[in-house]
Amino acid sequence: MEQEQIQEQEEIDASDMKKKVYSIEDLPGIGPATISKLGAAGFNDMMSLAVATPGELVGATEMSESTAKKVIAIARANLDICFASGDDIMRKREACIKFTSGSKELDKLMGGGFETGAITECYGQYGSGKSQLAHTLSVTCQLPPEKGGAAGMAVFIDTEGTFRPERIVSIAKHYDLDGEAALKNIKVARAYNSDHQMLIAEKVEDLVKNQGLPIRVVIVDSLVAHFRAEYVGRGTLADRQQKLNKHLHTLAKLCDKHNICVYVTNQVMSKPDQFFGDPTEAVGGHIVGHNSTYRFYLRRGKKGSRVAKMVDAPCLPEGEAVFALTEQGVVDV
Q1: What superfamily does domain 2-77 belong to in CATH?
Q2: How far apart are the first and last CA of the chain?
Q3: What is the CATH number of domain 90-332?
Q4: What is the pLDDT of residues 73-109, one digit of tens each?
Q5: 261 with 111: CB under 8 angstroms?
Q6: Of the residues 140, 283, 319, 324, which has the fewest C-beta atoms closer than 10 A?
Q7: In the structure, what pLDDT confidence band is assigned to residue 2 with cuts at 50, 70 and 90?
């Protein structure tokens, strides 16, 4: 064992840099123990190594920084970067699925429904309907395509204890689905801190490979609750944003690789220096804003209704939609 550890710490010489490497197992100067540690940390292919930082590899495997730099250099030298043409991207976009939120008005605001292959962020004050929408999406994604669904399963990452199976049963009844079957098609994981939340998101990929039905929506309710509670004060802001950025990149990879819709709810804060207009602003700053494909704001409307305002989207105009929350979930007013 000691000899193996010494072997893992050996420097990679110039001749190793010129060897053709096709997988992590072929990396020169890296022993089985280090490869196992890399895999446990999520570095399973050459691309993940090529885009890693030396610090990430050192933290995951305890190899020296110079060895980490050379491993990254080898991965980059042996990685075939494939550029796709615009029509290739167009064909990939055609594979995206849009499934209903339960409200035609909200679907229209979202360009036809909630889209797979994208992160959709919804922020608003407590009681605005973020979690109720999450429960509805957990059911509507199970519907067949002809009924506005995605014929898939849902993953619900619960950070605030908001998941209620009773709501799933009542919403499923509205769509003529068996309540027990609907619950079985939702995989729920309770996250108790930010590190646990990030780990669960990384484990979703394993879940994707082991399920019969495809996973079509991953819900994180809420995205920033743990990060906000654990990183207090300006001194910890940089660390918080860095971890949050990494978490969002994991979710973005799930979107792109497995054609999954990621729906995240976000908390809000009030801007006391704003004298005109709504002082409500989403938590998480630019990191969350830039990583979200679609971003909309929920607020209470008249007579118990809810108003969704499109804040940011790649190719959709700003606008508003009015819907209601009932025992059947999200419905039109």
Answers
A1: 5' to 3' exonuclease, C-terminal subdomain (1.10.150.20)
A2: 67
A3: 3.40.50.300
A4: 888 888 877 788 999 899 989 999 999 999 999 999 9
A5: no
A6: 319
A7: very low
Token representation of residue 295: 């971003």
Mean pLDDT (the chain) is 89
Res 5: pLDDT: 44
Q: Distance between CA 326 and CA 182 in Å, rounded?
A: 18
Cα–Cα dist 198/247, whole Å = 6
Domains 2-77 and 90-332 share a fold: no
Predicted confidence (pLDDT) per residue in 25-45, tens digit: 888 878 888 888 888 777 878
Q: Quick one: which of 296, 288, 291 has its CA closest to 312?
A: 296
Q: What are the angstrom distances between the C-alpha of 293 and each of 116, 175, 314?
A: 11, 28, 7
Give the rounded distance of the alpha carbon of 109 from its chain centre.
21
Separation CA 206–CA 62 (nearest Å)? 25
